[in-house]
Amino acid sequence: MAEKKGFEQSLGQLEKIVEELEGGELSLDDSMKKYEAGLKLLKDCYQYLERAEKRIQKLVKKEDGTFSLEPFEGASGEKKEDE
């Protein structure tokens, strides 16, 4: 599935919006438009990270000495196992 924008590009645009909002020089209407655009970019970034996290696997050594790939349990609130 092709991305409309890359993660880095979306994050960069989001950072620019935050700077503009923090600058305090926008009208209320422009601030609301920027805020809404920022929320969409934030949602896009989270979705991109969730898809990337699902693709990550860890290599686990089993008791018999063989290795297998298992899903990586990360920041989504799932417990990580330290080995």
Features:
83 residues; disordered C terminus; rod-shaped; 2 helices; alpha+beta; 54% helix; two-stranded antiparallel sheet
Short description:
The chain is of the alpha+beta class. It is 54% helix and 12% strand.
Structural class: alpha+beta
β-strand percent reads: 5-15%
User: How many DSSP E strands?
Assistant: 2
Q: How many domains make up the coordinates?
A: 1
Tally of separate helices: 2
Q: Determine the fraction of residues in helical runs and give it as a percent range.
A: 40-55%
Question: Main beta sheet: strand number and arrangement?
Answer: 2 strands, antiparallel
Molecular shape: rod-shaped
Measured distance between first and last alpha carbons: 34 Å
Mean pLDDT: 84
Please identify the oligomeric state. Answer: single chain
Order of helices and strands: HHEE
Order of strands across the main sheet: 1-2
Radius of gyration: 19 Å
> Spans of 5+ residues with little confidence (pLDDT < 50)?
79-83
Describe the structure.
The chain has one domain. A two-stranded antiparallel sheet has the order 1-2. The model is unreliable at 79-83 (pLDDT under 50). The protein has helices spanning 7-23, 28-55; strands at residues 57-61, 67-71. The protein is rod-shaped and about 65 Å long. α1 (7-23) runs antiparallel to α2. It is of the alpha+beta class and 83 residues long. It has two helices and two strands; from the N terminus they run ααββ.
